[in-house]
Amino acid sequence: MRQVSILGIGQLPVREHWELSIRDLAVAAGREALNDADIKRVDALYVGNMTSGSLNQQHQLGAVVADFLGQWGVEAVRMEAACGSAGSALRQGLLAVASGECDAVLAIGVEKMTETPGRDTTTALVGAADAEYEAVHGVTFVGLNALVMRRYMHEYGYEHADFAPFALNAHANGAKNPNAMFRDPISAKAYQRGRVVADPISLYDASPIGDGAAAVLLVPTAKAPQAVRIIGSAVAIDTLAIHDRQDPLWLAAAEQSAQRAYQQAGLGPADIDLFEAHDAFSVMAALSLEACGFAGRGEGVRLAQAGEILPTGRVPISTMGGLKARGHPVGATGLYQIVETVLQLRGAAGEAQIDGAHTAMAQNVGGSGATVVTHILQRA
After folding, report:
1. What DSSP designation does 206 have?
2. Which of 83, 190, 84, 206 is nearest to 145 (CA)?
3. Which end of the chain is more exposed for a tag (fewer CB within 10 A), N or C?
4. What kind of architecture, by CATH, is found in domain 4-117+209-222?
């Protein structure tokens, strides 16, 4: 298998893009990645997306995007793994290049979510849960995560206010990212006054949806020796329904995919300079830190309280706002994480730059932990 590098990147600001369709978003990000890599033609294109069929009435998204990018005749497929769709698209692109089947692959994540009524968007998002055993009872996706957060608080003795450092860090970092949806820092007082969405999850514990697209251009490392390299890549799954898991407070798929990626890279948690966690909810950030070995069981919140997730901490997370402040265009999020990681490793993250960043990890979570894709990247 060949080593793979990221030669080109592209992204759009996460916004309510009223003037752009889902194809416009994807094509703009894809073209930016092609231009960044100075490549006009690819061998394959993988599009990560969750809701285009239900919210945009557009299936065959791979063909649509390839068509309007002028990539006629190439392999083009839409990848769907709920919130982990973009990470899965990257994973498939990496395998295609690593195997020798392709020499240039474009992976794009895109989502258009803000032009439909809220109830329709909520219904589409709950498709990330088990339709027969969770959604059928009327529980929303936020509601499922609220149950997990409540159980976490009960088991480990935390109060809601203890989760504030996750939101404060994300918003402070998002203020440094021109592509972030929310660019204003928040205070601990604002966090405590946040409107309850699904008890105990408040407005500042939950990531906002948005429209957006991000893309990367993959090539063999031998053809781009100075580009950022992917040195670890793995995906693992857990049960779709939370109640079917042996331990609802342990992200087994996150642990398994991280361990496989660590093994491939020949590294461990102590070697990671920054971690783009899938902080869709505050509790998910804590659970991810624990599953990936950065904190002990039940210690993820304490790690945040100690300031270790800050840009100057031991394991900086949400370095450009994360899902919480950059925004969470669901099927595109995994590639926003990768694009931001590449910027950090290129030393091109501007005000958000983490000093000395050499090795980074990005983890994209589909559903409430059912599909987890982990990538480890390193500066050449």
Report:
1. B
2. 206
3. N
4. 3-Layer(aba) Sandwich (3.40)
pLDDT tens for 103-155 read 999 999 999 999 999 889 988 988 888 999 998 888 888 999 999 999 999 99
Q: How far is CA 173 from the centre of its chain?
A: 16
Q: Which of 17, 83, 160, 171 is catalytic?
A: 83
Per-residue tokens: 80:
């769907």
Cα 375 to the chain's mean position, in Å? 11
Q: Which helix (H) or strand (E) holds 101?
A: none
Q: Say whether pTM exceeds 0.90.
A: yes
Known active-site residue 292: no
266: left (phi over 0), alpha (psi -120 to 50) or beta: left
Q: Which amino acid is at 74?
A: V
Domain ranges of the chain: 4-117+209-222
SS (H, E, C) 241-294: CHHHCCCCCCCHHHHHHHHHHHHHHCCCHHHCCEEECCCCEHHHHHHHHHHCCC
The question of whether 83 is a catalytic residue gets the answer yes
Q: How far apart are the first and last CA of the chain?
A: 19
Amino acid of residue 27: V
Determine the Cα–Cα distance for residues 341 and 335; give it in Å rounded to an integer.
9
Going through the chain in order, the beta strands assigned E by DSSP cover 4-11, 44-48, 75-79, 105-111, 196-198, 201-202, 212-220, 228-237, 274-276, 359-366, 371-378
- Residues 180-199: tens digit of each pLDDT: 999 999 999 999 999 999 99
Element (H, E) at 347: none
- Torsion angle (degrees, nearest 10) of CA 357, 176, 35, 16: 140
Out of 17, 171, 278, 328, the active site residue is 328
Tokens standing for residue 241:
């329904």
Greatest C-alpha distance within the chain: 57
From the list 323, 364, 327, 319, the residue with the least C-alpha distance to 343 is 319
Asked if 318 and 165 count as a contact pair (C-beta separation under 8 A), the reply is no
